[in-house]
Amino acid sequence: MRLAVVADTGAILSLSLSGLLPKCKKEFRIVVGTKIRVELERISKGGDDLGSAALSALDGIEVRKTSREYLKGEDEALDLLTELDADILISDDIKFVMKNKNNRKVAFSVILLGVLLEQNKITKEDFVKGVDRIFAKRNWDENLIYLAAKYIIQQY
């Protein structure tokens, strides 16, 4: 059975930039809320790498409406996690992930690459290249997500 994954905007963009989003779409049921879809549509209008990543991310992901509207996509994702009883919520918002650190279902997007690696759906080289592509195109000042990715790869 495929894992049900709720994602926020940053996580979807990261997976798209990694080049491994098509594999993730094939292996996981990826669900976003309507707020996230609207954010991805807005970003897709940009003529840059993030715009292209958002455009490709919109194809083939399930969009679900929550019982209420949210100002923040992360809050909408938390609601979907509960409503759908999903397996995991991925976010690359460090403050959000840290705020929800006691919720074992909340993790950085690179966890999905780790699951693919564990299931032998990608190689270690694919994992490392994917993470490197994310960090080459994202403007993250903090490298906590990169450290999480390094921890995952050290397990294999």
CATH superfamily: 5'-nuclease
Integer count of domains = 1
CATH class group:
Alpha Beta
**What is the count of DSSP helices, taking H or I runs of 4+ residues?**
9
What is the tally of beta strands? 5
- What structural class do you assign from the helix and strand content? alpha/beta
Taking the alpha carbons of the first and last residues, their distance comes to: 23 Å
Low-confidence segments, given as residue ranges, are none
CATH topology: Rossmann fold
Strand order of the largest sheet: 3-2-1-4-5
Helix and strand run: EHHEHHEHEHEHHH
Largest sheet features? 5 strands, parallel
Provide mean pLDDT, rounded: 91
The gyration radius over C-alpha positions equals: 14 Å
Our estimate of the beta-strand percent is 5-15%
Q: State the helicity in percent bands.
A: 55-70%
Shape field: globular
Which architecture name does CATH use? Answer: 3-Layer(aba) Sandwich
Please provide a brief summary of the model.
The chain has nine helices and five strands. By secondary structure, it is α/β, with parallel strands linked by helices.
